[in-house]
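Pinned message: reference record for G-protein coupled receptors family 1 profile domain-containing protein
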Amino acid sequence: MKLTDHKTHSPSKRSGDMHTIVENHTQVTWFCLLGLTEQEELKGIFFVLFLLIYSVMGNLGMITLIHAEPQLHTPMYFFLGVLSFIDSSFSMVDIPRLLESFLISSQSIFFASCVVQMALMTLHGTAECLLLAIMAYDQFTTICHPLLYHTIMSQHLCVLLVVTSYTVSVANSALLTGCLFKLPYCDPNVINYYFCGIPPVLHLACVDTTEGETIIFSSCVSLILFTITIILVSYAYILVPICRMRSLQAQSKALSTCASHLTIICFFYSTIT
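Predicted structure (C-alpha cells):
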C-alpha cells in the first residue's frame, strides 16, 4: 500500500480530551474498496442485475421530451425534469464503480477521487431531498389553489427554488466533506464498501471522531426533518379538499395526480432513513 511518511506528531484515538501522540505518522494517499460482496457466485448475478437497472437513457429521454414538448412546459414537469437530471447524475457517480467492483476483486481510489465522489454523492442526495419537498409544495398548490396555480408557481419562483436547493446542497456537501477529510487517515486504508460513503470513511480516521459525527448527524437529521415536515404538511392540506369532494371520480383523479410523487417519496425516504 502506497503511504506517505511524515515525521510529525499527530493525534491518534483518544478518550475524552486525552490525546496520545504517535511519531512517524503515516497519512494514506489512497483507499482500497472491497466492493459490495466477496462471494464470487453472486458477483455475476449482481453485475447483470445492476447493469439492467443502470440506464441513464430513461432520465435523459424524459429531460429531452420535457424540453421539446411545449405542452409539458409546466412547473410540475419542470421539477420532474430536474429530478431526472439529479437521478442521472447520482447514478453516474455511483453505479459505474459498483459494476466495476463485480469484475475486480478490490479497487483502489485516490484520496482526492474519494473526496470528489463523496462530495458529489452528498450534493445530489441533498438536492433530491429538497426537490421532493418542493414538488410536494407544487402538488399542494395544484390541488388547493388551482385558479392561482400559475400565478403562485411562476417560472421565476420555480427557477429560484431549484437554484436555492442546489445552493444549499453545495453548502451541505462542502460542510460534510470538509468535516471528514480534514481528519488524518492512517493505515489500514481499506473501505469495506463499494464507494466512499460517509460512515465507512469516517471509521478509518485515526483521531477521535465525536465532533465530526455530531456535525454529520445534525446535518442529516435537520435535512430529513425539514423536508419530511414540508411534505407531510403539504399532503395534510391536500387531503382536506380531497375528502370534501363528493365525487369519487374527482377524488380518484386528485389522488392519481399525487400517486407517482408519493411513491418516489416512500422509496427514497425508506432507504435513506
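Pinned by admin. Summary line: The CA atoms of residues 148 and 255 lie 20 Å apart.
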